[in-house]
Amino acid sequence: MCSAPLDNDQQAEDARYSVMIEAERKLFATKPRTVTDVRALAEIAFRDPDSIPGADLIGSVLNGLRDLDDNAPSPTFDPEQWLVLYERCGGGWVRPAGRELTLCAPVPASDGIQASLWELETRGGREQVLRLIEEREAERIAA
Q1: What is the pLDDT of residues 73-113, one digit of tens each?
Q2: For the range 23-28, what are the long-range contacts, defined as Cβ-Cβ under 8 Å and sequence gap of 24 or more?
Q3: Which of 14, 21, 74, 98 could form a disulfide with 123 if both were Cys (CB 3.0 to 4.6 A apart)?
Q4: 3-state secondary structure (DSSP) of residue 89
């Protein structure tokens, strides 16, 4: 009978942990409005020096910074290099008749595709990549 308090303590601890996880999920889904907001996200994501946060937390911090930078694409993003890697991993694009260009990937997506798409979103490079594809298609038609 001595284990009953321990079980209750464990249940209470599990409940507190679940509430904390849900609060963090909501916080990282919220668009930051100030540098202070982004700093708070970074401090939460990187609170343990012995642990690397997940891609979703890192992405939230990077996207928060990009939002505050007027959604400017990253100065380190190279659309040509990105597109080469994306195609090597099996990615491509389609343009349904009369519609916009759409990036596509095999299902299930490989780690390389997932990493490429994460980079595209966190670096704000989608428009650059689509513009590059448009230019290549125009050159191919003109040739």
Answers
A1: 888 899 999 999 999 999 999 988 878 899 999 999 999 99
A2: 28/56, 28/57, 28/60
A3: 74
A4: coil
